[in-house]
Amino acid sequence: MRRYSAFAIAREALRFHSGWERAWRSPNPKKSYDVIIVGAGGHGLATAYYLGKNFGITNVAILEKGWLGGGNTGRNTTIIRSNYLQDSSAALYEKARSLYETLSQDLNYNIMFSPRGVMMLAQTEHEVRGYQRTAQANALQGVKTEFISPQRVKELCPIMNIDGPRYPVLGALLQERGGTARHDAVAWGYARACSDMGMDIIQQCEVVGVRSAGGVVTGVDTTKGAIDCKKLGLVVAGNSGALAGMAGFRLPMESVALQALVSEPIKPCMDVVVMANTVHGYLSQSDKGEMVIGGGTDGFNNYTQRGSFHHVEETVRALVETFPMLSRLKMLRQWGGIVDVTGDRSPIIGKTPLGNCFINAGWGTGGFKAIPGGGWATAELIAKGEPGALSAEFGMERFIEGRFIDESVAAGVAH
Ligand SMILES: Cc1cc2nc3c(=O)[nH]c(=O)nc-3n(C[C@H](O)[C@H](O)[C@H](O)COP(=O)(O)OP(=O)(O)OC[C@H]3O[C@@H](n4cnc5c(N)ncnc54)[C@H](O)[C@@H]3O)c2cc1C
Description:
By secondary structure, this protein is α/β, with parallel strands linked by helices. Helices cover 30% and strands 26% of the residues. It has helices spanning 6-14, 42-55, 87-101, 103-107, 125-141, 150-156, 183-196, 240-247, 309-320, 371-384, 398-401, 408-411; strands spanning 32-38, 60-63, 79-80, 118-122, 146-148, 171-175, 179-180, 200-202, 207-213, 216-222, 225-234, 253-265, 273-276, 281-285, 290-297, 331-342, 348-351, 357-361. β10 and β11 (225-234) form a beta hairpin. The longest helix is centred in the N-terminal third of the chain and has 17 residues, at 125-141. The two termini are 35 Å apart. The mean pLDDT is 95. The protein binds flavin-adenine dinucleotide (FAD). Flavin-adenine dinucleotide (FAD) is lined by residues 38-44, 63-66, 70-73, 75-79, 206-207, 235-237, 239, 243, 258-260, 294, 337, 339, 363, 365-369, 415.
C-alpha cells in the first residue's frame, strides 16, 4: 500500500488524482480463517489491527452485516476522555487515550485527534464533591485532570451562562488532553491498515449462526455462506445479545437507543468539549461549525437505531439555560445508535462459555473513546486465550461473583 504524505498529494495533483489506490480491498470470504471477528466497528477493526501488529496473526476476517463503521462508531459524538473513577477503568481508558495521541502516525491516516480539553460541569453540590473525588482518584492513577473554578470555566467557554437560576455552574472537572477525533476516520484508518496486512474485511455479510463441536467454536453461518475459524471474536455492540444467543449463552446486558443531533454550522464559538450531566446534554463544535449535541438514551429497550422528536426537545431545553445561544440555532439532523449497557456501566472483555469464542461488548454510551485500548486488550485476549493486565477485571464472571466495576457516575449518562 502506498503511504499517504504531502508528497503523495503533490504527485497526485500533477496527474489529476488518477493514481490513488482503494483504501481497502473487498474480497470474497475464504473457506476458513484463524480468527473471525464479527462486527467492523471501531472495536472489531482495532482488535484485528492489534492481532496483526502485536501478535503477527493476519489470517483474519472481519465480517460486517452493513458497511464498516456504520454502527455506533459512525454515529457517536466523538468525545475522548479517561477521567474514570475506578483504577481498572482509568487504566483501560487512559491506554486508549494515549494511543489516540499518535494513532494518525501509527495508521498513516489522519484521524483528526483534537485534544481540545473536556470539561464536565458540576452544577450541584453533589457533583462538586463527586468530581473532586474523581480528580483525586485520577491523580493517584496518573491521569491528568483538575477541578476548576466557575471563573475558569467561563474563561475556557465564554458562550456559557454560569449563573443559571436553576443550575449555576459551580466548577468543572477538566481533562486538558481529552477531546475529539473524526469517528469515520478511526474506522477507515484501522480498516485500511488491516486490509494492508492481508486481512479480509467482508461487508454486507451478516452472521446468522455460530457453529460449534464439543463445546468449542468451529465457524459461523453467514449470508455469504458458512466460514470456518479456529477462534471467534464477537464485537457487535448493541447486537451482542443476539450474537450471544446464537453462541448459546446469555449476557448481563440491555440494548437501548442513544440519540444525538447537530445544529446548522456557525462561526467558531467554542473550542472545548462540555458535558453537563445534571441537565443531561453535552456539546462540542465540529470542524464544519456545527454544534454536535448528545442526548439521552430511550427509557425502554429497543433496536430502533433512529432519532425521535421528544429527545431533541428534551435535550435542547435542558441545555439552553447554560447555553442560551442554542435557542437561536436551527437543528439540522438527528440520529440514534443501539448501545449495549451493562449493570455496572463497564464493558465486558473476556472469554465466553463457548470455547475459543471471545467477546468485547458493553461499552454502552461511551466506547468510542476506548477503541484503541479495547482493541488492544481484545487482541491480547484472543491471541493468548487469556485476558491480559488491561482486561483482567472485565470478564463477565464479575456479575456472578459480585465484583462490579461501578462507573455509573462516570459513564451512566455521560459519554
Ligand atoms: C448517539 C451516540 C453518541 C455517542 N457518543 C459517544 C461519545 O461521545 N464518546 C464515546 O466514547 N462513545 C460514544 N458513544 C458510544 C460509542 O459510539 C460506542 O460505544 C462504540 O462506537 C462502540 O463501538 P463498537 O465497535 O463496539 O460498535 P459498533 O460501531 O456499533 O460496531 C458493531 C458492528 O457490528 C455489526 N454487526 C452487528 N450484528 C452483526 C451480525 N450479526 N453480523 C455481522 N455484523 C454485525 C454492526 O453492523 C456494527 O457495524 C455514542 C454512541 C451513540 C449511539
